[in-house]
Specification:
Layout lengths: L8 E4 L5 H6 L13 H10 L4 E8 L2 E11 L4 E9 L8 H16 L4 E7 L3 H9 L3 E7 L2 E7 L5
Parallel strand pairs: 4-5
Antiparallel strand pairs: 1-2, 2-3, 3-4, 5-7, 6-7
């Protein structure tokens, strides 16, 4: 691994790469914290009008997955799924992918807020989001902690 700024990019999930996305996995101890990508792709299909599934790539390798939902009724973006494959974790890719997503959404100007949730006890996820300036809302949903980021604040 080279130090410095590692480049990642987001590409839409399509009929050409969805199988590769379904092969991405997290470590066994994280499986209670992250839904399988096949489930999230099912959600993307069911909510096709508001869902935007993205693969996270580093060079030619798909290393992660993000399911973004537009929620006009709540006037926010919602990150329904975010994962980095177990073989690529702890290398800064997750943070870079989230920074890229935040900048993309900030430039769209559709909604002022990004919301997400994580399983209570998933400290790595919590610390990543806090480091990206998400704040705890104090709300819980089905055992998951809800956080949000105000896109109007300077990053």
């Amino acid at each position: 691994m080279t130090m410095g700024h590692v480049q990642v990019r987001l590409e839409p999930i399509t009929k050409n790469n969805y199988r590769e996305c379904m092969r991405l996995t997290v470590a066994d101890q994280q499986k209670t914290h992250v839904a399988p990508n096949a489930k999230s792709l099912g959600e993307a299909y069911a909510f096709y009008d508001t869902a935007r599934p993205f693969a996270v790539y580093h060079e030619d390798a798909m290393i992660g997955f993000v399911l973004l939902r537009d929620l006009p009724e709540l006037s926010c973006y919602y990150i329904s799924q975010f994962m980095i494959d177990q073989n690529f974790q702890r290398q800064g890719y997750g943070r870079q992918a989230m920074e890229l997503l935040i900048e993309m959404l900030r430039s769209e100007h559709l909604y002022p807020i990004i919301r997400l949730c994580f399983v209570d006890g998933a400290e790595d996820a919590k610390n990543l989001y806090l480091g990206l300036k998400f704040r705890l809302t104090g709300e819980m949903d089905a055992g998951e902690v809800i956080m949000e980021l105000d896109l109007d604040t300077v990053g």
